[in-house]
Amino acid sequence: MRLFVAAFLLLGPAAASAAANAAANDRARMTPADADPAETWPRWRGPSGQGDVVGSGYVDRWGPEENVRWKVAVPGKGNSSPIVWGDRIFLTTAEAAGAKRSVLAFDRATGERLWTTAAPNANPERAYPKNGHASSTPTTDGERVYAYLGNHGVLALDMDGEIVWHKSFGELNAFHGTASSPLLLGDRLVVVQEQQRSASFIAAFDRRTGDELWRTERDTQVGWSSPAAISVTTDDGEERDEIVVNSQHHVIAYAPDDGRELWRASGTTFEVIPSPVVGHDLLFSTSGRAGPTLAIRPGGDGDVTDSRIVWSAAKGSPFVVAPMLVGDYLYMVNDMASVITVYEAKTGEVLWQERLGERMREGFSAAPVAFDGKIFFTNDNGETFVIKEGPDFELLHVNRIGERTIASPALVGGVWYIRTDGHLWAIGEETG
Question: Where in the sequence is the domain holding 224, given as residue range(s)?
């Protein structure tokens, strides 16, 4: 199975060139989405799953009254990110203390809400206040929108908001609630759920019918990391895809066809939220409230703790925020102290550390994005720190949107789409 090749054929020229470079230079790379990354943002962290922005025309400055194309109210509460396909934006929300959960669609040009579809009723699971009941970002293939809604199950909708299929998992015993975002990989929709008092699992469903294709129990209980799909070339020259989950105490890879475990590496902490990123033949895992960072060479077999961890850093990892890999550098913010650390990705050498704004405990949540030699980190207060890419620290400026911001942004067609508490914003050059 070569999803990388299939996706390559569907990408635009610029994206295809970037994909070709990745194939030539890296033995491990994020599996591309089957869409032009300059025109869609179909999942959490975009087409690549790791915050890379394709295209041009994006502003790097904004404020409550600066470069705002529109701003609309979003009912309910949620930390899920917007996704974009065609002329529509989709996100999820929760109302009635989590008893009602819905998928919403908005018009990209105006922000008008086009439809709201609620999932079948279910009792809400217990959730940590900051997490809430709508933290999982939906995904789309352009035919359907897929949303994982905890006790309310998995919902597949057509682009007009009609329910195509629904899959319930019953009542989950999730520690602090659910948050892992679903993954589309070929014809499969992959869901990961960690829980207590019942078996944690990773499962794949037919994206057209909702039929369960396989389910693998996991020996983990706590975690909110979203699965990542990567394409690798093994030491034996085999080309294969892997589904990797950054997990409690382990990073684990599974086979997309049948869910069997391929390899695992030990060294993560008890609470794991950030999803991994890949590049330079390595997969980068971060975990804990200030725990370790691991650089793992994927494509292994069995327990690879002693054989495929290329470098590790003992402390300083983010608790919530996913890392950002840009060129030769790995960027991460320790959200327990508001300190950004930049590593030389291949070696693990620390290049610099600096504080971003005031020190706050659990003060960053949104995943960073990058374009035009700049990396954007947004804290929970809605302050976006614009950092110049490179081996030396340079803070270019700080944008303040004026509202609490937990969700990660989506960037399509020269416009930022940012979800704050209660609103969805379109940020771009003001048109007169």
Answer: 3-427
